[in-house]
Design a protein that fits this description.
Elements lengths: L2 H19 L7 H15 L6 E2 L2 E2 L6 H13 L3 H27 L1 H12 L2 H6 L5 H22 L2 H18 L2 H17 L12 H21 L1 H10 L3 H4 L17 H4 L4 H15 L9 H15 L12 H13 L4 H24 L6 H21 L1 H28 L4 H12 L6 E4 L4 H7 L4 E3 L2 H7 L5 E5 H9 L6 E7 L7 H4 L1 H7 L1 E7 L1
Parallel strand pairs: 3-4, 3-5
Antiparallel strand pairs: 1-2, 5-7, 6-7
Length: 528
């Protein structure tokens, strides 16, 4: 892969990510974090976190600090909420390149960076922005800088590693230090560079991290006392393994084994083969340049799998390392079978995307169907001209970018029309209603609060609604409670109907247009 080709890939990725940056933020987490960032800007309280006016003890503050700063500079927009995380995501691509190039050469670095940036998960993590996007970048940056210090001994790399670890701790808690520690520890053991542990400059690491954590710790103590500090340093992360954390689900220890393949699409064959070859190398005498990628990815993967609460985006933190493992498989000799399997899966992915585009939202889908078909024709011609190996990366990256254009340009814009909370919140903002003139009757949501610009007050029943209804008051509710209001003699002057669906929990019934109506919830805006 040439530098020019790599730069072209990154420019294309910027355009695809930019297309998704203007989409409505999704419930639950992204909309909540956007709303909290907006409230932080308005209240000016940087040390204490609040949600809907209540004390908030769950996530560290870095995402809220950065998004609030972005709001202050650019205004409150969908893209300005996402901007800091998107910038961190591209820093993660750069760090992935530098880490892979450090041990395996620039060609491997460009391939690893392309696999990470050109993955399904990267498109999703820059669209549905949560804490994990910044965490992923912080962790791979810490690993690259730490390994660079192990190799070259430059103080600047040690400082960069410390700052990156501090950022990881400030955005997601102890996993921001544990993940780099796994990778760097494995590399230290592999190289037997024990004298590095005696370097007095290592004292800079805890000093820098403590300085970075100090404002957060002050805020936690002032707001929650010692419980806040214990929650952050222990219960939030380790408590999910010991069972002390309140978040518990019934997911299997194998949960992430079926999450990883789709997240690294379209490079899944090389990642899985790379895992196998790299693990084999751990137990042979053949000296690989580094084991940080393999050991770091697998140890974090195992730790996440042991957690008693799992969500797909928790795995993002491992993806840059898995991309490096995949790049090593690409460079590994005897990969002809892998290329054939890869092309088969790429054709399958393309077929499914074409069918998805045709069926799910048929309205105004012809530009995307045309784009998909034209790319397929061009891919066949290019493949016949260049051959399987030479065409693999350009066609694979191009394919996932076209999928990204479809997702960010057609699928998500249509899907998010069914996020009633966001649409109603935007209507409230447009009508310049305040919290004394807009209420939710047995309905609420983080997107509703974020787009309305204030925590929407909750009404429990028609009798509570009677106490606030007056000319100019608007109530947002569902079909059952519309009837309850009418039965109580509270007839609105005007009614607007919305369809609602939990857009993060898409099921097959929703994706099939003929079955969609049966799973939609009716929501109503009642003007009095």
């Amino acid at each position: 892969m040439t530098t020019r080709a790599f730069n072209l890939y990154m420019l294309t990725l910027i355009l695809v990510v930019g297309l998704g940056s203007v989409l409505d933020v999704m419930e639950v987490d992204a909309a909540q974090y956007a709303g909290m960032s907006r409230d932080m800007l308005l209240n000016g309280d940087l040390l204490e976190l609040h949600y809907r006016g209540e004390d908030y003890l769950d996530k560290p503050p870095l995402l809220f600090w950065l998004s609030a700063l972005s709001f202050k500079i650019f205004g409150v927009h969908n893209w300005s909420y996402r901007l800091p995380s998107i910038l961190f995501a591209f820093l993660g691509i750069y760090s992935t390149y530098r880490f892979a190039a450090l041990y395996h050469g620039k060609e491997a670095g460009r391939i690893a960076a392309t696999m990470f940036g050109g993955s399904a998960a990267f498109i999703l993590m820059t669209n549905d922005v949560r804490c994990d996007t910044i965490l992923t970048s912080a962790v791979i940056t810490a690993i690259w800088a730490g390994c660079a210090w192990l190799v070259g001994g430059r103080t600047v790399h040690l400082v960069a590693c410390s700052v990156a670890i501090g950022a990881g701790l400030l955005v997601k808690g102890p996993i921001g230090a544990i993940a780099p520690a796994f990778a760097l520890g494995a590399q230290l053991i592999h190289t037997k560079a024990w004298r590095k542990l005696l370097d007095p400059r290592l004292l800079l690491v805890p000093m820098i991290i403590l300085v970075m954590l100090l404002p957060m710790c002050i805020g936690l103590y002032e707001q929650f006392g010692m419980h806040g500090l214990r929650f952050y340093f222990w219960e939030q992360s380790f408590g999910r393994i010991t069972g002390e954390n309140r978040w518990v689900d019934d997911s299997s220890v194998l949960f992430f084994t079926h999450e990883l393949p789709w997240q690294v699409l379209p490079w899944v064959v090389f990642v899985l083969a790379g895992i196998g070859w790299s693990v084999k190398d751990l137990f042979t005498e053949r000296k690989e340049a580094e084991h940080a990628s393999t050991a770091g990815a697998l140890l974090v993967f195992a730790a996440l799998s042991l957690s008693q609460f799992k969500l797909p985006h928790y795995l993002y933190v491992t993806l840059p390392l898995f991309a490096v493992v995949g790049a090593k498989a690409w460079l590994y000799q005897g990969r002809r079978l892998l290329i054939k399997i890869h092309y088969f899966l790429l054709a399958l992915l393309w077929t499914l995307t074409l069918g998805f585009t045709w069926v799910v939202f048929p309205e105004r889908n012809w530009p995307y169907l045309t784009l998909l078909i034209l790319f397929l024709i061009g891919a066949i011609i290019y493949l016949r001209k260049e051959g399987g190996r030479a065409a693999l990366i350009p066609l694979s990256f191009g394919a996932i970018m076209i999928v990204g254009v479809f997702m960010n340009g057609h699928f998500y814009p249509n899907l998010l029309t069914y996020q009633a909370n966001a649409k109603v919140g935007q209507w409230v903002k447009e009508k310049e209603l305040d919290e004394d003139h807009f209420y939710g009757l047995q309905v609420s949501g983080s997107a509703l609060d974020h787009y309305a610009g204030f925590p929407v007050r909750w009404l429990s029943n028609a009798e509570e609604a009677r106490t606030v209804i007056a000319p100019g008051v608007v109530i947002y509710t569902d079909a059952q409670h519309v009837q309850e209001l009418i039965d109580a003699g509270l007839d609105p002057v005007n009614t607007t109907h919305y369809h609602n669906y939990p857009v993060q929990l898409i099921g097959i019934d929703f994706l099939l247009p003929e079955q969609r109506r049966a799973v939609l919830e009716d929501r109503f805006v009642l003007e009095f």
